[in-house]
Design a protein that fits this description.
Layout lengths: L2 E6 L5 H13 L5 E6 L4 H13 L2 E8 L5 E7 L2
Parallel strand pairs: 1-2
Antiparallel strand pairs: 2-4, 3-4
Length: about 80
């Protein structure tokens, strides 16, 4: 099992969504993946959650860390 992490600084645009999608293809079954964002736009969080679910990820934890950044912890199920 491997652990992957992606830190996103600032606003999320098309390039960042494309990078997230590409990164999801690297993560293998049962691997852990964490996304940390400092721009806490509810719509962007919803889009990323949908991307994760559409790519066979199970989100097991999400929320704000002590630094005020939003994080999503997930693992790939198939």
């Amino acid at each position: 099992m491997s652990y992957y992490r992606m830190d996103i600084k600032g606003e999320i645009g098309l390039t960042e969504y494309s990078n997230i999608y590409d990164y999801l293809g690297i993560v293998d079954k049962e691997d852990s993946f964490t996304i940390i964002m400092n721009d806490n736009n509810a719509q962007e969080i919803g889009i990323i959650n949908s991307m994760l679910k559409d790519n066979s990820f199970c989100i097991y934890e999400e929320g704000y860390n002590n630094s005020g950044e939003y994080y999503i912890n997930a693992y790939k199920i198939k």
